[in-house]
Each structure stands twice: as C-alpha cells, then as structure tokens.
Amino acid sequence: MDSIMPLLDGFNTAMMGWNLFYCLLGVTIGMLVGILPGLGPTTGIALLLPITFSMDAIPAIIMLSGIYYGAMYGGTVTSVLINTPGEAASVTTCFDGYPMARQGRAGTALGVAGIGSFIGGTISMFGIVFIGPPLAEMALGFGPPEFFALMVVGLVMVVGLMGKSLLRGLISMLIGLSLSLVGMDPLTGNLRFTFGEPNLVEGLDFVVISMGLFGISEVMIGMEQAMHLGALPKVGKLLPEREEWLPTLKAIGRGTGLGFLIGLIPGSNSVIPAILSYSIEKKLAKDPSRFGKGAIEGVAGPETANNSYCGGALIPLFTIGIPSSPTIAILFGAFIMHGLTPGPMLFQNNANFVWAVIASMFIGNVMLLIMNLPLARIWGKVAMIPPAFMYPGIVIVSVVGAYCTGNRIWDIWVMIVFGVIGYIMKKIDIPMAPIVLTFVLGKMIENSLVQSLIYFYGSPLGFLGRPLACGLLVVALVIFVAGAIAGIRNKRGLLADDIDA
Amino acid sequence: MKRKLSLLPAGLLAISAAFSAFTTTAQAADKYPSKPIQLIVPYAAGGGTDAVGRVLAESMKNILKQDVVVVNKTGGAGAVGMNEGLRAKPDGYTITMVTREVAILPMLGQAPFKTLDFKYVGNVNVDPEVVVVSSESSYKTIEDLISAMKANPGKLKFAAASAPNFYGVQFSIEAGVNFVTVPFQGAAPAMTEILGGRSDFGIYNPGEIKAQVEAGKLRPLAVMAEKRVEGLKDVPTFKERGLSIFCGTYRGIAVPPQTSDEVTKVLENAVAQAVKDPKFVEFMNKSFLGIEYKNPADFKAMVEADMKVLQPVVESINKK
Question: Between the CA of residue A126 and those of A26, A312, B161, what are the distances in Å?
Fold first, then answer.
C-alpha cells in the first residue's frame, strides 16, 4: 500500500488552483467532442495539443487526459437520443440505448451510462494505483496469436446477437466481414475492392458506417411513420426501476473488469470491450430477447467497459511506454512534448507528475458524474423534440460529423449510402448489429491471424504451442457448440423463423 | 490562463478573416497573402506529420502575418489530401504538407498524380531510420544481427510498422540479408512485439523509439543516415560500419505547379524563416523530430534522388 501516500500528494497537486480548472476544462471539452459524431477523443486531443505547448506539464496532461476519458461519457448522448454514435466506443449503445429512449427512458439510459462510466472509470483508476505495473508486464506476453483467439471468441459471441433468425444474422455478419476487407491488405499493402478509388484505400470508416446504418436509416424510417407517431413519451426518471438494479450493477461490474483487462492489451481499442461486454450481457441474460429492445444491461455494460478501458489503457503507457490505442498514442506524444518520457522511468523520475495526473482523473470522474446526472435529464428532453424538428437536426449533425472524420465530402456520401442500406435492412428485417461488430472484428482477426501465421512460419499448428491462445480458441469452440445445441433444442433451426413467418 | 483567453479574440479574428475572404476576392491584386492560408495535412490529426504541420503553421503565421490553418484531409494513405492540394487553385492560399509518400504512392500506382507534378517549396524535416533490438537480445552490434541473418536466412523476425515496409526491403536488398517481415499498424504495436520477445528486430524513426531507448528496453544498433543523429550520438551509422544504407522519411511544403513565382517566393522565405523560429526548433527537438531545411531546388533534388532509391525497392515489392 505504498501507493497511498504519493497518491494523496497527487491529490494535493491536482487540487491546486488552476490544475482543478484545467481538469474541468478537459473533461468538458471531452464531453463535447464525445457528443459530436465524427469528432472523437483522438481528434480532440490532437487539436488542443499545440495549445498546451506553452503550459506547464502537469496542467497540460491533466487537461488532455480529461478530454480522453471525458469523451467516453459524451459519446453516449447521441447514441441514446438520435441513434447516432458520438464516437466509436458508443456504437453498441445504439442497440439498446435508443430503444430505451423511444420508450421514454432516455433519462434512465443516460443516467445508467453515467453511473456505469463513473464506476468503471474510478475502479480502473484504483487498478492503476494498486495492480497496474505487474499486469502491464504480463500484457506484453499477449501477442498476435492470443489477440486472434480473443477476437474469435468475440466473433462467436456475435452469433448470439443475431436476433430471431440465424440465417438473417449470418447475412448481416457476412456483409460486415466483406466490408472489412475493403482497402489495403495488411500483409502486402495490395489494394482490395478499391476500384481505383483513392478514398477507399484505407477502407471504410467505422463511425461513418454506423452513423449511416443507425442514424440516417432511422430518419428514413421515421419519416415514413412520422405522421402516425403519437405524443412522444416522457423523459422518465434517471435511475432504473428497483428490480433492474441488481442486473444493472452486475453488468457494470463485469464491464469494469472486462474493460480494464482489455485496456492492458497493446493494439486494442475502446470498441472491443464495448462489443465484448454487450455480447456477454446478452449471453448471460435470463431473457436475451429483450436485447435490442431497450435492455438496460445492454447500455450499462458497454458504457462501463469503455470507461474502464480508458483507465486500463493508461497502464501500458505509464509503466512500459507503449501506447495501446491511437488516442493514447497522441497522449504519448503530449508526454514527450512536455519533456516526460513514458515508460518505466516515469514513476521514478516524475512521480509527482504521474500521481497528480492519476489523482486528477479521480477528480475528473467525479466532475463528469456531477455534470452528467443533471444533464441526462436535460438531454432526455431532446428526445421529446417533435420529429419535424428532430429529423432535420439528426441529418445536420450526422452530415457535419461525417465530414469531420476526414474533412472530405466522400464520407458524407458513404454515410448516406449506408443510410439507404440500413433502411433496406430494416425493411427486410435483417439485424444491423452484426454488420458493425464483424466489421471491427474482421479487420483485427485478419491482421492478427496473418501476423500469427508469419510467426509460426505458416503453420496453423503453432497455435497449439501457445497455451493462452489455444485455451481461448477452445472457449470459442465451446460457446459455438453450446449455442448450436441450444438452438436445435429450441427448434430454432436455421430457417425456422423464416418458414414460420 | 492567458493563453486560454487569447483563444476568443483569435476565434473572432478567424471568423472576420474568413468573412473578409468572401468580400475581398475582387481585390485579388492585394499583396500576397491577404487572407488566411490553408495548409493541407494529408494524414489524421495526432500523427507525426500533423504535429510538424501544426507547429510549422504556427511559426509561418507569425512570419506571414496571416493565419495558416491546418486542415487534415485523410484517405488513400495520403493520396487523397496530396491530390486535393495539387489540384487546388494555384493562388498560394492552399498549400500542402507532402511526405515521402509523395514519391512512394505514384510508384506503387496508388496515387492519381505524379511525384514531380508538385512545385516543391521547402523541406523542413528529415528523420532517418534506426535499427533496434530488445536490450535483452544477444545481438550487441549491427554486425551481430546481420551475421545472424546470414547464418539463418528467412528465420529472424522483423516487426514492421507498416506494410509494405520500404525500410525493411531496402535493408534486406542492401545488406544482402533475408528475414521474415511481420506487419503491424504503426510503430507502437510493432515495438511491443520486440519487447515481448516475439520479434527479433525493428526499424523505426528516432521519435518512435526514444522512450524505449531511454528506458533501456530497446537497443539501437545503427542509423540509416549520413551522419549520427542528435540524441542518439552513441549509435553508429551504417556508413561507419561499411554499409551505405540511407533511408528515412521527410516532410515539406509543396504547391500546385501553376503557382506564380512571386507567391512561391513568399512561401519559400516563410518556410525558411519558420524552421529557425525558436518555438519550432524547441518543439521539434522535444518531439525528437529532425529539422532539415532544404530550399526548392534541393528539396526537389532530394525527392528525385529518393525516387531512384525507391525504384529497386518497389520492383522487389511488386515481384512478390
């Protein structure tokens, strides 16, 4: 427990004068970039980085890291209100957060997301303080073969998200996997499915696709039905119903652990814990059919996991000097700019700095909670705006957001095309969650499989020599087989639903 | 705090400047630059090119007495932004930060332009590549590493920060060695492989390895440059060890070819002055980015020389 004293010292520094102000400024900016689709924490930090150049290191890093974890709170808002993810990690929140808002529970969705984010964020800070460094060293042993196996587990669990018909789910999965192939081949750099279009070389953008599939298609469907919509439901209360507390807290607990552990893995990103958490919650739920229709655990779990991920991902940065995600890579740059070298020497040479930053994150999370709970009520009112004003608003926000992702018109068109695709999919009742999930997983699976096979000089048997990877693959197999058997028992055959319908 | 407050007037200034941009097109005869200049950075915010672009823009702004606004136009591994910069109105109000990809992409057939289509204004940064191994590795010198590769051709593993990896291919051709390339997206995950003991060596630029070298986790073996690098003074160059391998990345400013000489001259002087700006120098040194100014003629010559270096590398990649 020799971390306590330096941490208290850190609080002392973080509470001093302007540091507190910069913490507030950072988390507020973070909230805002999180809320605006297309602008995420990566861009937010990059844009403010030059401004911090003339500041002292401590307030500068306090502010920049505030943007980083603040964005995780903000991303939820648009997901819940307008079915358009504010940033990548909040895509899964659209699945159940938006249905909750339609049921008049926007306030509850945002409230639970805020509480979960706070718990996840705070507990992962304790993780940094007490168990971080040894875990970071262990995470170095987690290489491409293990990563591949973990992603396969994720993919198998996505099968569980497929809604009522396995066939329709598989169609959606295959679309997602195919889309993930567009762009540069990770092994040779050759171009695939780009049709000579430079804009496709880097593949399609995850957030832009999601904005189209969820947000724009929702507007199209809504315009069809707008005339028939009755009075919009109330904001509802902030806190869940009494019987929902236990499952919600359990989801928050699982999300915390999951997010933290995945944060330790180099090469991960904040979408992965959200996807895994959502899949796990659906698997564990007594009645999985509630998912996609406003299940509170489907909001609580992923929203907690992405905040907890933020804390976990700082550990490799602080202790071994490895940025585990693109956003952390920019923070890494900020450290260097301010004359601090992330890595094992950081705690020794700049202990005061590290503890002040960690302490500021505790404070920042409290600030975010205080900001978010009352705000949730206000945001909830946004859900009550009549469609005639709401839909143009969604379109404007989405178009601006899509443009912001790369400052090119191209992304706006991509979003609109996926809006139409999403509309058609809703009409023919093909679930959309598997598309975006397999799109993310597909790239990672391909990358890590190629890397693993190169390591094994081309032999897939190499996985047998990696106990952890092998174990995870066995888990994937078990989930798959168990799912298949359960499916047959329930007479939910491949085509059953289609025939019944 | 003062810094924060100054944002507001700056914002108002930008708005009024943008407004005047609409109203003053008729007075185009004004002395250049009479309105804000847009600097296209063809990569996402937060990367090395973005950092160089932003600090350069800041310094140029003070010299030109006009805002220089960085706009990240991403896509096509840089091809989209560079192409847009090349096709922009050649009035000097849209300038582009080009990188080594300006030579690479057309050679790979992945760009809708030719390298020498651009009018090169000034180069600001050159970063040579450094070969590193884990500090726990048994390879103490570059000779150790090369002889190990010669003894076990195709066995040692290179954790590459991108695919295809031009540095790796060039190293393999010029040192006459054979190894396995494991491709990663970026230097950070690649270095993790070396730290985790799964890959044997890597080739990255000084800014990327700085933290790990200082922490004693990575051992730099040799630099692919003419002379030793600031900050890595103990590390020999390949040249010192009898191998003429020169390889690295560079970044500079370019404009569309029809840009008038008058305007180009103003920009050239601004870039030349900006690289001496203490703020620019401080930032580049802190970030471990090498400052190397080249005037238009030298910049173009460097790009042309690089195209010759890249030719065999690209051929070898296309053969595979």
Answer: 21, 10, 33
Task: Report phi then psi at B10, rounded to 5.
Answer: -60, -40
Q: Structurally, how many domains does chain A consist of?
A: 1
Task: For chain B, 320 residues long, give each residue's pLDDT as a single digit of tens.
Answer: 344 444 444 444 444 444 444 444 444 456 899 999 999 999 887 778 988 998 999 999 999 999 999 998 988 889 999 999 999 999 999 999 999 999 999 998 889 999 999 999 999 999 999 999 999 999 999 999 999 999 999 999 999 988 888 999 999 999 999 999 999 888 888 998 999 999 999 999 898 888 888 888 999 999 999 889 888 889 999 999 988 888 889 999 999 999 999 999 999 999 999 999 999 998 898 888 999 999 999 999 999 999 999 999 998 888 76
Cα gap A374→A360, rounded to integer Å:
22
pLDDT (tens digit, 9 = 90+) per residue, A306-363? 999 999 988 888 888 888 787 888 888 888 778 787 877 787 788 888 899 999 999 9
With contact defined as beta carbons under 8 Å apart, do A262 and A120 qualify? no
Contact B167/A at CB under 8 A: no
Q: How far is CA A453 from CA A447, A456, A458, in A?
A: 10, 5, 5
Residue with tokens 């896509």: B75
Which residue in A51, A341, A345 is closest to B3 by CB distance? A51
- Whether residue B7 lies within 8 A of chain A, CB to CB, comes out as yes
Q: Which A-chain residues 408-467 have CB contacts (< 8 A) with chain B?
A: 408, 410, 447, 450-451, 454-455, 457
Nearest CB neighbour to B215, from listed A144, A324, A344: A344
d(CA B55, CA A263): 31
ipTM of model: 0.82
Shortest distance, CA A378 to any CA of chain B (angstroms): 27
B269 in reach of chain A (CB within 8 A)? no
Sign of the Cα torsion A309, A312, A315, A321 reads negative
- What is the fold, at CATH topology level, of the domain defined by B130-223? D-Maltodextrin-Binding Protein; domain 2 (3.40.190)
> Which residue of chain B is at minimal alpha-carbon distance from A22?
B1
- Main-chain dihedrals φ then ψ at residue A223, nearest 5 degrees: -65, -35
Burial (CB count <10 Å: 0-12, 13-18, 19+), residue A161: buried
Q: Where in chain B is the domain with CATH 3.40.190.150?
A: 35-127+249-319
CATH code of domain B35-127+249-319: 3.40.190.150
Kindly list the residues from chain A whose CB atom is less than 8 angstroms away from the CB atom of residue B284.
none
Is B287 at the interface with chain A, CB within 8 A? Answer: yes
How many angstroms separate the most distant Cα atoms in chain B? Answer: 71
CB A313 within 8 A of CB A324: yes
Domain that holds residue A233: 4-500
The whole-angstrom distance between A381's CA and the closest CA on chain B is 31
Closest C-alpha to B187, from A322, A45, A52: A322
Residues of chain A with pLDDT under 70: 1-2, 160-164, 226-236, 487, 490-501
DSSP state letter for A215:
I
Among B55, B83, B188, the residue with its CB nearest the CB of A329 is: B188
Q: What are phi and psi of B68, to 5 degrees?
A: -115, 110
